[in-house]
Write the C-alpha cells for this entry.
Amino acid sequence: TREPGGSLFCEHLRKLLLDPDHKVFPLAELMLYEASRAGHTAEVIRPALEKGKVVICERYSDATVAYQGYGRGLNMKDLRLIDRVATGGLKPDVTLYMKFPSGNSLRRIKRKKDRLELEKASFHKRVEEGYRHICERNKKRVKVVDAAGTQKQVHERILRIVEKCLKK
C-alpha cells in the first residue's frame, strides 16, 4: 500500500497533494498528509494487521518527519503529536530507507513531475538530512538499503532484509 493514498478517499487526497498546479501552505500540507494517514491507517493498515497480514507500505510517519519537519521546517513536537493522533500510535516494526548514490536521487526526481519532486535542490537536501537523522536515531528499526545498482540487485537486498525480519 502507499501514502498518501491506499484507499479511495486517500487517493483523492494524494492527487490534490501532489498536483504541481496547487501551491499548498506547509501546515495545510501537513494536515492533508495526516488526514490521508489517518484514513489509510484506519481503513487499510489496522484491518490487515488484525487479520494477521504483513503490511508493506511505501512511506509512513518517517516521511512526514523528513519532508514536513526537515524539508518545510515545521515544529517537530507539533508534527509528532499530530502524527501520533493520526496513526493512533501505530509504528512500523521495520523501515527500509533506500540510500541512493549522491546526486542520483535528484536526477531521478528531475524526471518526475509531482509537486514535491519539483521542489528546489535545497529542499531535497534538507529532506535527505532528515532521513539521515532518522536512520541514525532509529538504528534498530530503520534498515538502510544500498540502492545503487540494477533494480534486480536492489530487490535482492530488500528481500534479504525483509526475510530476516519475518523470521523474528
Summary: The radius of gyration is 16 Å. The helical segments are 8-18, 26-50, 61-71, 76-87, 104-111, 121-137, 151-167. The longest helix spans residues 26-50.
